[in-house]
Amino acid sequence: MIAIEASDPVEELQRENEVTERLLERLLEEAQRLRGGQPVPTGEISAGLRLLGQYLRLHVARLDLGLMPEAREVAMQTCFAHLDKIVEDHLEERRLLDEAKAALLDHEKGRADSSSRLAEALERLTQRDHEVGTYEGDYPLSCLVTALPEEASKRVAEQFAPTHRELADLDAHIERHLSSAGGKGSSLLAVHCAHEGCEARDGAHVVPGPGGRLELVAPIGGWRVSSQKVVPYGNGTVRIRVDFQCPRHASVAPGADLDATSMAVWADDGGPVGPSSIEGGRRPSTMLRPLVPVPEPA
Questions:
Q1: Is 227 within 8 Å of 256 (Cβ atoms)?
Q2: Can you point out the beta strands (E) in 187-246?
Q3: Rounded Cα gap, residues 223 and 225, in angstroms
Q4: CA-to-CA distance for 16 and 132, rounded, in angstroms?
Q5: Residue of 270, 265, 213, 205 whose CA lies nearest to 23
Q6: Nearest one of 98, 141, 152 to 121, comparing CA atoms
Q7: Which helix (H) or strand (E) holds 120?
Q8: Main-chain dihedrals φ then ψ at residue 242, nearest 5 degrees
Q9: Where are the beta strands (DSSP E) in the chain?
């Protein structure tokens, strides 16, 4: 779903709640998989939480700062309690989101019982956010659809205008994130063994990693991944040659191990990994953008 400038800002806020609901459904699915003992890529959860936080920040600013001042001028007396409640609800949403991020960090560090605690944190977050979105639609937004005068609606729309592009960008990232089946947010990478004369082939995977990174995972069954020289470029990227060795030749492969290499790419880019730019060949390589700028070569 791509953001479309709504003719009515209240309807736009309701649409944003629908988008948020889809993110919550994915996070709840991941919580249920964790409860069932199934592996869930931490990067998949991290991407969902990051997108949810960014979307809620934008939605809350639009509602609390853009709509609320106009709403309080025209709302019926019974509506004021609803307006006050959603301000409190937004603070609670932020607290629960921070708790979920902290639980994810513990899970990434492998702490005891971190999987079940992360599942609980995700369940609390998704349940509460679902309640808040439903409440907004059923009460304050519903009453304001008819109560907000046309001139006031135009002023609110003007307040929303500067964030339309940011909203559209987030919508696109969310659509990408949700477009892959849960637990399968990876890109298949066809690889050949780099050992001279060996024709072994298999499939590696690029999967979402924590913090907006990507992780390169070797094929199962004893394959090894090793990196060669890192070459910096002046456009904020580095080129890393990555070699794959089949189980037969893994023990004689040179270079540093990269069995679970974290590759920094567009840390602010939400959503799952798209089609990989690394295609088959004996010595596949990729262009990566580092989180920390790489100095120009001397």
A1: yes
A2: 187-192, 201-208, 213-217, 224-232, 238-245
A3: 7
A4: 13
A5: 270
A6: 98
A7: helix 114-138
A8: -120, 125
A9: 187-192, 201-208, 213-217, 224-232, 238-245, 256-257, 260-264, 285-288
**Mind listing the pLDDT tens digit of every residue in the chain (298 residues)?**
344 444 689 999 999 999 999 999 999 999 999 999 988 888 889 889 999 999 999 999 999 999 999 998 888 877 888 899 999 999 999 999 999 999 999 998 888 899 999 999 999 999 999 999 999 999 899 888 888 999 999 999 999 999 999 999 999 889 888 886 555 555 667 888 988 889 888 877 666 555 555 667 677 667 888 776 666 666 556 667 778 888 888 876 555 444 333 333 323 333 333 333 332 222 233 333 333 333 333 3
Residues in the chain: 298
Q: By C-alpha distance, which of 181, 138, 167 is closest to 25?
A: 181
For tokens 């459904």, the residue is 25
Strand pairing report for 256-257 and 213-217: unpaired
pTM for this predicted structure: 0.65
CA distance 24 to 279: 34
Amino acid code (one letter) for 152: A
How many Cβ atoms are within 10 Å of 185's Cβ, its own excluded? 25
How far apart are the C-alpha atoms of 242 and 258, rounded to whole Å?
8
Nearest to 201 by CA among 213, 219, 187: 219
